[in-house]
Q: What sequence folds into this?
């Protein structure tokens, strides 16, 4: 996947917003931020085996005095539902950036059910949802989410629409 300007802008906003830890399950839509986090001496990158671990990692970072973000794909939101109760009960600031699947030109029918329900699941769990569908929206939306999470103490998810990433193609044998 070729780097796109909005990906750099999103990472730069996180860095400028004081995020110093990035937890993630590898995902092509977040590849730029993941590569930058790994190579940056300012950011601690934490690779996860499942997205739900990231909720605890981000909460632990806050308890340790650091700002963190969880990067995941929409299919991972369903894995986090039980852990989201930690955020509500402990009132931790929380920020996650979510790349969407199951929307625009999706080829994999297994991605569609969670794709249709991602925003609703997040809202049912008490998480404020912001969304960016165009490259020129990403920087402002991520910046607003950083402020809402770390200045207002809210739990915030930024949905990055599938059109930003473009069509995924099946690359099977």
A:
């Amino acid at each position: 996947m070729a780097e796109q300007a909005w990906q750099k802008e999103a990472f730069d906003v996180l860095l400028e917003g004081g995020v110093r830890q990035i937890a993630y399950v590898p995902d092509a839509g977040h590849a730029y931020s993941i590569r930058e986090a790994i190579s940056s001496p300012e950011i601690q990158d934490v690779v996860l085996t499942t997205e739900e671990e990231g909720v605890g990692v981000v909460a632990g970072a806050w308890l340790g005095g650091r700002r963190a973000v969880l990067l995941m794909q929409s299919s991972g939101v369903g894995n986090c539902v039980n852990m989201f109760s930690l955020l509500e009960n402990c009132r931790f600031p929380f920020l996650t950036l979510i790349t969407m699947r199951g929307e625009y030109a999706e080829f994999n029918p297994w991605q569609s059910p969670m794709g249709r329900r991602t925003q609703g699941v997040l809202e049912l769990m008490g998480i404020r949802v912001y969304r960016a569908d165009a490259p020129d929206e990403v920087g402002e939306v991520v910046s607003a989410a950083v402020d809402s999470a770390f200045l207002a103490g809210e739990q915030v998810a930024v949905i990055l629409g599938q059109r930003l990433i473009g069509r995924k193609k099946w690359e099977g044998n």
